[in-house]
Write a structure and sequence with these properties.
single chain, 1 helix, rod-shaped
Length: 87
């Protein structure tokens, strides 16, 4: 009888340990998902920030140089077209 009680207690402890291990596994998986979600958001935020830091100056520079080029072409065109041989 004593052996059966010890075996039952041991089985109960094993079941309890299995339940705790399962709970720990679930918590670990949830923590990993949370970390990955936060890491993904962090990476996306940095990618967007860096793209803005790089692209906005490039777009502005292109717009400024495009405006100057058009202006220069326009002034040259007027200078040549406006003369028509008459001074």
């Amino acid at each position: 009888m004593a052996i059966q009680n010890v075996e039952a207690a041991l089985k109960e402890k094993e079941n309890s340990l299995s339940s705790l291990e399962e709970a720990a596994r679930v918590q670990r998986e949830e923590a990993q998902k949370s970390i990955m979600g936060k890491y993904s958001k962090f990476c996306c935020s940095w990618i967007l920030l860096f793209s803005q830091l790089i692209l906005i100056p490039l777009i502005r520079a292109e717009a400024e140089s495009g405006g100057r080029d058009r202006g220069e072409r326009g002034s040259r065109h007027r200078a040549h077209g406006g003369s028509n041989g008459v001074r």
